[in-house]
Amino acid sequence: MAKEVIISTSGLNCYGSRVLTSGIDLTQYQKNPVLLWMHRRSYNGKDMPIGRMENLRIDGDRLIGTPVFDENDEFAKQIASKWENGFLRMASAGIEIVETSDAPEHLLQGQTRATITRCKLEEVSIVDIGGNDEALQLYGTDGKLMTLASGENCDHLPLLLNKEHAEGTAPEASFNNQNNNNSMNKEILQLLGLSETASEQEAVNALRLLKEKADKAESLQLASINALVDGAVADKRITADKKEHFVNLGKSSGIEALRTTLELMQPQRKPIEVIHQTTDQPAGGEHKTYAKLSDVPASEIPSLKESNPTEYARLYKAEYGVEV
């Protein structure tokens, strides 16, 4: 019984990229669905289609097909035997890249190269060992086989973390950037009180502890701000509807600035309280409590004489029995 095989999926591949299954164009390949061995068009000087792919289709996120081997070719018969007996189990797509994207919605965690969003299926091969579960062979738009090395940029499939190099920045700049990142990481570890050999988990734990302390300090400060504002409301320096405004003032300006501001504000009083105070403790009408000039404090006599000469004359006469 013929065995179906998964030819490609949208998963992360050995190049650090991925091929969107929905973007694979099967049109040209279906006109001549050749099956090769290890992506080779010839082997020992012979033409090397070892068969064809049948029932080629996209099923969800998988490109699936059934390999049919050429039983009239001795080498193809050997591959067929190993396939049917489970010694070979993997197929690989050979595609021509049409379009790539580094948009965030097309990227997976751990991806180092752009996503191939559109491509043409050129051939399908039986392979012995694939780079991963979705073995893949890439061809550029010029039809030439692509060879990709780790960290090496390629116009057809650019690196995500090496855009400066792709745009013409000197390789030394990328190297310097990496050194800068290393230095920055060391500095961060030092600021956290950790050694340069500290693990990522140790750094995360230190950051988490710092955050907990900062949250606690912020909570205590907010409690102090609220206590100050509540006290100002109780003292009638501000009204309750202004509480939120002064709480926000404390958050932005600091608790000391808030305390100074509130202390400069006079308690609000009802009109009747002002009247009673004026009657009981007169400011400008203190002369009503004095019978004669000697009753007036010496420090207030000059002011009384200047501001209220009539009253001063009355008290003077009461004191000395003569007009001023």
Task: Describe the secondary structure blueprint for this structure.
Layout: E1 5-8, E2 18-19, E3 24-25, H1 27-31, E4 34-37, E5 42-43, E6 46-47, E7 51-59, E8 62-69, H2 74-84, E9 90-101, E10 115-127, E11 136-139, H3 163-166, H4 171-191, H5 200-234, H6 243-253, H7 255-263, H8 271-280, H9 301-307, H10 309-320
Parallel strand pairs: 2-10, 3-10, 4-10, 9-11
Antiparallel strand pairs: 1-8, 4-7, 5-6, 7-8, 9-10
Helix pairs in contact: 5-6, 5-7, 6-7, 9-10
Written overview of the protein:
This protein has helices spanning 27-31, 74-84, 163-166, 171-191, 200-234, 243-253, 255-263, 271-280, 301-307, 309-320; strands at 5-8, 18-19, 24-25, 34-37, 42-43, 46-47, 51-59, 62-69, 90-101, 115-127, 136-139. With 324 residues, it is α/β, with parallel strands linked by helices. The strands form two sheets. Strands 1, 2, 3, 4, 7, 8, 9, 10 and 11 form a nine-stranded mixed beta sheet that branches. A two-stranded antiparallel sheet has the order 5-6. α5 packs across α6 (243-253). It is rod-shaped, with a radius of gyration of 44 Å. Residues 162-176 and 273-287 have low confidence and may be disordered.
